[in-house]
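Q: Hi! First time doing this. I have a protein sequence and I read that you can turn it into a structure. Is that right? Here it is:
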Amino acid sequence: MRGKDLAALLSLALIWGASFLFMRIASPAFGPVFTTELRVSLAAAALLLFAFLRGLKPGILRHWKAFLILGGLNAALPFTLISMAELHLSASLAAILNATTPMFTALAAWGMGQEKPGWSKSAGLVIGLAGVAVLVGWSPVPMEGKILASVVFSLGAALSYGFGGLYASHAGKGIEPLTLAIGQQLGASVVLLPLAVIYFPRHLPPASAVLSVLGLSLLCTSVAYLMYFRLIQNVGAVKTLSVTFLVPIFGILWGVLFLKEALYLNTIIGLVIILLSVTLVNRRTRKQE
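A: Yes, that's right. Below is the predicted 3D structure, encoded as structure tokens:
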């Protein structure tokens, strides 16, 4: 990976690590669905303004079907699931669980008939499940129903990201990163709009929640997805998704610094096990690329 792409990968990890902090603050105030709708709608508006100022015509309508699918898989569904999870999970734990995305990408590739998992990927998947078990089962936080459901939501988001990343690498060929970023956010906005109307917040959210939504939409979505799609085009889907090695580290850092979240031994051990599993899952594919 070239130095420029590596720097972009590190910046993306820092930004996406902060997204778990922002969702943890915004979701209880706006609700998971409306938080996500604001996030993708404001991000799409910002990206469209950026394209207009640069004199570019994205040509969204030419690929509207692909953008609806991409927006649903890679934004609407995972963003909402993580926001639901963070009603009860810490930002740190949600960020670590999101690190299972490459595991689920391998499962998605297998399910779609693209690649069968060899011994390395199979071992990685088993080890990854063990890492999740350490995070959930060896925790001083009581694992009651809401917590376990939130863990399932987080893992469901990782699975959705896996399918979304694979779909983006296929459907996004020949499409400019800016067009992909705009199309994904607009697609997600359209998909979520009916639910957002139903779950419109009944109370005026605090300033911290409003600022968090702005951070989510402008920084963690508009800027981040431009970087994300450009990396997919430059280095491939699997190498780009290796950003999940770094996202949980920044997610933990921001959670501890700004939300004063406790850091437990099982959190560190679970993170190490999951990152080991991701290494095994990506091993053969890295050699191919």
